Amino acid sequence: ALHHLHPFLQRLASLLLYILQTHLVRELLHEGQALSIGVSAESGHGGQWLARIRQLIKEGSVPDVSLVPVGISYDSVTNVKFGSKAVMQWLLSLLWTKPATSVMIHLAQPFSLKEMCESGRCRVDEWLPLQDLLLPVVLNNRADNVFGRRRMSWLLPTFPSATELEEKSHSDRDLSVAIILHLIFSAASCTAVMSTSVVSSLLLYKHSKGVSTSVLCRDVAWLLEELLFRNKDVGFGGTLQEIIHYSLSLLAPDLIIAALPSGKDTVIVPRPSVASILHLSLLAQKVTHTFILEVVGACAVSAMLCEVVLSSVSSKLRTDGVKGEEVRGDMEFDVVLSQSELTEKALQLCHLLPPGIMPPCQSTQCFALDAVDSLVHCGILIMEEIPRDVHICDFWKKEGTLTWTTTDDPYHSDSDCEEQDLRSYKISQPRQCPEMLFFFCRMLAGHLRALCWTTMALDQMDSPLAEDDFLSQIHSHLRDTANQKKQHYESCSEEAAHTAVRTLIDLGVLLQMYQTGGIFLGVSPLFQLSENRQKLQWFISQYLYN
After folding, report:
1. Of the candidates 509, 182, 192, the residue with the CA atom closest to the CA atom of residue 355
2. Range in 56-65, 75-84, 361-370, 412-421 the model is least confident about
3. Which residues form the signal peptide (predicted)?
4. Where is 270: in which H helix or E strand?
């Protein structure tokens, strides 16, 4: 609400709010009270309270505090309007019209805020603006990768007049954001996966066209085994049939269930509506978070296959000893991929991920390497030694085209200081889940597709617009696009619109302008050119499963 005030009143209101918040936090902590702070990964709301606590510790007003990340798992999500009547109706519906749902509260490992800040665990010295990390790659102006981590300063919202009051330096502000990211990631990591999350994930990302109950039971058993193999807690028990029946009972409003003519089995299809798909997508996020390494690695493989197809060298692929075929879910293909190229693709994708989904204390380079390794562990990639006289495909950004080099070339390196990398992989189809690669790719498709659609919408936007109006128009565009296509409804939520707009701001596609009426958003001069918008769309869409 402060954005709509006169600039002088904004400054005065910000100062009063800062003083009141700091005084309130100090008094509560002196009394030994426990504070419950909710931090939003979408808007960053709640982060200011953590910043106040850090400031009090630095001033010596408070010696130290322990932070305990709290995660909540639930079987079903219900939009409940606040009010005694609405709450009573919701409780009655749980008691009489649905099976008893489960809610689990998880406490992650507590940590000292002072120690976390002083130990150097949260490194922010490599944080860079997103446009510095990705814009040169998107526009093909520079071949080299810029190593670093995306700065997400918007997770600690401030007004221009209050910036100097809240943080003394840029690195100090980044450290507060790092603590916020650590809390978001820890809370998400400690939560158990519920049975409805497992079923929702399979229905959305593996069987969107429908699946029989018998096949669904088999896949639930497989996915449950994969979750437990990764030491992930699950919030359910019982026989496989009981788990499936319980989950389908809760998800029934979001599904179409029909009996087969034989009468021996049923077919289950996600209901093609915005509300149903968004509900299933929200539940499936727990599974996506668990497999984020495999998801990023799979999308990197998809991007490389996309480049192979678009390079129009299928005939040359066969003559040079590398076979390529149309990429479909039911095919067999034999493509040799270099580790360096896969890691590069994974690294670039990391910068587009929403906040809180990557380990905050791990560098993006290590995460990208782990993403590629995770595909080897689950059988999607098979490592092999390539003879030194065999050609491998390597997409050199310096040339901007597909280049073929032999591995015995002493100058085969992306930089003069790197050692030659002979490690290569072939794509395989694991016996237990032949379509695992595409299953993982689809998990991130909703986020990436929303980003693509938002970029496309810039052609129709009359900017600059007030930030709220801009977000509202983008959200409407996403919903209209999904309704027109009659699919991909997971890409049209308010959260998807907000995250996409925030990413485009960080990327320099949209500019924030502080005016008397508030914050306005407009397309930057660089991306008013349709050619640059098309380059950005292609860069994002290469990671989409197609």
Report:
1. 182
2. 412-421
3. 1-27
4. strand 266-270
* Cα(137)–Cα(146) distance, integer angstroms: 9
Cis peptide before 464 (omega within 30 of 0): yes
Q: Which pLDDT belongs to residue 37?
A: 85
pTM score, whole prediction: 0.83
- Pairing mode, strands 127-128 and 149-150: parallel
Write the single-letter amino acid at 263. G
- Tally DSSP H helices, then E strands, for the chain: 20, 17
Q: What is the mean pLDDT of the chain?
A: 81
Q: Residue 462's Cα: distance from chain center in Å?
A: 29
Instruction: Let me know the angle formed at the C-alpha of 114 by 112 and 119, rounded to the nearest 5 degrees.
Output: 95
Q: Please state, in angstroms and rounded to a whole number, the distance separating the CA atoms of residues 356 and 409.
A: 41
CA-wise closest residue to 295 among 306, 305, 285: 285
Quick: pLDDT tens for 164-219. Answer: 444 456 678 888 888 999 999 999 999 999 999 999 999 999 999 999 999 999 99
Looking at the DSSP bridge assignments, the partners of residue 427 are 381
Residue 130 near residue 506 (C-beta atoms within 8 A): yes
pLDDT tens, position by position, 462-483: 878 999 999 999 999 999 999 9
Radius of gyration, alpha carbons of the chain: 25
What does the alpha-carbon distance between residue 470 and residue 466 come to, in Å, rounded to a whole number? Answer: 6
Taking CA 349 as the corner, what is the angle to CA 178 and CA 320, rounded to the nearest 5 degrees? 150
160: pLDDT confidence band, cut at 50, 70 and 90? very low
Fill in the DSSP letter of residue 428: -
The answer for residues whose C-beta is within 8 angstroms of residue 64's C-beta and 6 or more apart is: 57, 112, 113, 114, 115
Q: Please report, to the nearest 10 degrees, the dihedral formed by the alpha carbons of residues 133, 137, 140, 144 taken in order.
A: 80
Q: Which two tokens stand for residue 90?
A: 């919701």
Lowest mean pLDDT among 208-217, 228-237, 415-424, 475-484: 415-424
> Vertex 71, ends 27 and 498: CA angle to 5°?
90
* Beta-carbon count within 10 A of 425 CB: 21
Classify 525 as helix, strand or coil: helix
